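Hi R.,

Here's the chain you asked about this morning:
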Amino acid sequence: MSRTIKFVLLMGLTLSLVLSACGTPAPTAAPVVEATEVSIATEAPAATEAPSAEPILTISGAVEQELALSEADLRGMEVIKLNAEHPKKGPTDYEGVRLSEVLAKAGIQAGANALILTASDGYESEVAYADVEACADCLVAFDGSDLIMVMPGLSSKAWAKMVVKIEVKAAEAVTPPANPNIILATTTSTQDSGLLDILLPMFEEQTGYVVQTIAVGTGEALKMGEEGNADVLLVHAPSSEVTFMDNGFGKDRMLVMHNDFIIVGPADDPAAIKDLATKDAFVAIYNAAVPFVSRGDDSGTHKKEISLWAKAELDPMTGKPAWFIETGQGMGASLTVASEKGAYILTDRATYLANKENLQLDILLEGDSALLNVYHVMTVNPEKWDAVNYDGAMAFSNFMIDPATQAVIGEFGMAEFGMPLFFPDADKTDADFGL
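And here is the predicted structure, written out as tokens:
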């Protein structure tokens, strides 16, 4: 083969290889655009938190079945809204379930006499069951995750917070005493004020004793004690009481309570005694010769009146002028006479307030230290009189100074008059009153 032909073949082969290597150009890839994920978040509505199923309140004690109630259990009852007058906060809105429904769910046994409310911090409060029964609007109310007691008309101690337990307390069975009958000689003021109507049923239920009450003036009550015709005395004439004890007629004497005397009279105040000192008021009444009613019955009130006339250096009791009217009756009856006569009269505050609606008499003088009215309970000395029921007398005396009874005394009158009619004093001494 000629050298020319070889050359041509070599060139063709080279060209073929070049063309094969070049090929068809690859398509240019499109720019990669990074996708941005767009997320439109739709916020789900907040779910209402379901009431807890964990127990938050237990009911125990004198019930048919003990309960451990959760918030869900409570809200499963009828939930009501109520605006109630809190003793300290005033009108406040509450939401909860009726306490009566909660107690009915447990089933209250016969003999229940109190509820013990216990808070999560250990605080305890005792509330009379009779008060709870009478309270249609008492609630177990929701306060966030806690429970509070809403107790309209009851004292602030009943409005317990953070309550986790309600214990129903029942009176223990009472063994009748060997000699169950006792005679109480007391003043008409304790009877007319209504205080004994509250206390005596409590005492009889708790002890099994039966009390025969004889309401007379303190002088007559002391005389009954001296003659052995009473077992125990509840009176308010300290100086005469001391004499009674010194003469050996009494065995025990205990301070119970006090209130005060006031002078009431016609609203137009013809003797112009309003805001005078007590001594000056008695002088003004005497000089004006306006009607004045005296009990004249040797009662504690009458003894106080006599001492006030003496301090004024006056003695209408001896001459008995026409304007000086003696009734010889108790406090309630004497107040009625004073109202009918348009007269002035010295009275204990409790009896006046208890009868105020039926009287045309206003308080004209009050607050003077000379008008203090202190009550003691005294047992008659069994060494003087064998028939005296000393055990019963001591049971009554101890009942009167018991903290639970003292609390009842301190609350008596609050619901009706907005103020107590008596102030408990078992934790004090006569020296505290200058006696």
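One quick note: Residues 47 and 273 are 71 Å apart (CA to CA).

Cheers,
M.
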